[in-house]
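re: that chain from earlier
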Amino acid sequence: MQDRQTMMLGAGASWRPAAIAGWGPSRRAVLLTPLLVPLVGRASARASPRRVVVAGGGIAEIVCAVGARDRIVGADSTSLFPRGLRDLARIGYLRNLSAEGVLSLAPDLLLLAAEAGPPSVLDQLRRAGVRIAQAPRIHDPASLIAAVRFVAKALALRSEGEVVAEAVANDFDALARITSSLPRRTPVVFVLAIGGGAPQAAGRETAADAMITLAAGRNVVDAYRGYRPISAEYLLGAAPDALVTTNHTLDALGGATGLASVPALSVLPAVRSGNIVSLDSLYLLGFGPRTAHAARDLADALHPGGRIPPLPPRSWLADDPL
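^ sequence. v structure.
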């Protein structure tokens, strides 16, 4: 980040590093043992589904990473990467899916993130005979690797899933080695959805909190879970060295100048000195196979003198059209 100025890193819960805690050789060995995960749906449709509808940006990225992009016939509004997914039929927002939209696509598999719903719509789809595979919640490297296997099993692509799981595990191993050598954890605040009132700041057990930790930062907002409006007084007392947000939030405010005009943020030395880091929201918060790379990029921005080396290139980082 040149001179700690505003940085936009392009496209693309709580967990603690061993250096990233719990992510050591024994934990990794357990995670690289294939898991048996039950699927919901008709037994007759279990062999290699060809018409897949997906809800959840991170899950959609996993589908593409294991080589099944051409099977996706519809997706929710959070499935934005690779960019070609945006041209597919839409089935609504992740938490408010349309039963009619799903049924109109005649899928032989509906693949969902844990947050997908509402439950009434999912029940309706099950009664209509739609096979549903809903991944467990993804909130750290371990659960992400498990989700890769879950998706690969649902698609009858186990061997492809093992390749991706191994690569993702290697990426987190490399990230842990990098961050363990950094001298300090940078105090950070993550803000989102800034409207006319106080900004929403990420507390504990959020995707933002997890990513800050992965990037060798320290979330200064630790008094609550989830996202809540936060006051200038709290932020001044917490004294973050950097403010992290999404490209969407920064663009909506008119850039760094607009963000600096928000009363609750304008008083922060980090904002006044331009220590603002902005990343693509799905890349940063989506918890898909690009997560280790996103955390590495965030670490690079939070530790400008740290000489953070790049992680290995992966095919699923490319934003290719479908």
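The first helix runs from residue 25 to 31.
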